[in-house]
Predict the structure.
Amino acid sequence: MEEYPHNLLDLEQQFATDQACRAYLFQLRWPDGFRCPACGHDKAWDLKTGGFKCVRCGHKTSVIAGTVFEGTRKSLVLWFRAIWWVTSQKNGASALGVKRILGLGSYETAWTWLHKLRRAMVRPGQDRLSGSIQVDETYIGGEKPGKRGRGAAGKTLVVIAAQEDGDATGRIRLRQVADASARSLEAAVQEMVEPGGVIKTDGWDGYNGLDALGYRRRIIRKTAEVGENPLPLCHREAALIKRWLDGTHQGAVSHEHLSYYLDEYTFRFNRRTSQYRGKLFLRLLQNAVTLEPVGYHNIILAVRGRRPKHKM
Ligand SMILES: [Zn+2]
């Protein structure tokens, strides 16, 4: 199924009711018809609640059970609006913006929704970049470059992998890492790039082991400090990410939650040339109904982070 709304009016007309939203999710979740999540059977009774009861094993489920929408007390109509705002705008949406636009009662609700959706933006086991890749690190949350390998107070180190497409950037991957040690950098590169790829870096020792891991490393720049004279594609990406965090999110992103924002940035950047914004809406919903649900407390616990601070 490749049907998606093309504009706001489309969205409002197609998804005016909870029922219409559920029917759409059903198609995304079970394109070949209902499957019992417990036993795999393909026949179910319809329940008055809108859910299903498996004819064979009696398991009760619904189209949102086991998805990011599980347990929500709000209408899916509102969720669909939120997803539309996040995917249709070039820079996405902040929690404050979503709260205002949807008329949600609490900032925390909007914040939690956006975090749940970020979880659905990058699927586990996503494909890795291949070809020729520039790799460099940048500090987020600090003004001055820091010493490599030691970490810097109040700053988060992020590894940027930018695929070369002529002089431009193809696709990207981003990873938050603990430090610039060989161990951290090698693990990050292995998650982001297919073996066999050409990895272009500066002269930092932390990348010395890449050849032994099946990559072809090329040193294209000599430098000592993170953030000084970085590789061009990575430099451009670092600037865009910082501008986005400072602009759309007004610098309110804590270090504990940064990796989820990086996922959102990656999701949007890698689809920036998509002709139809509605496709992002479709992709996000597809992911949202096939990933494990994450509750507010799980988000907090998983990242050991603080509760969102500002309540405006
Ligand atoms: Zn069953």
In short: The two ends are 40 Å apart (CA to CA).
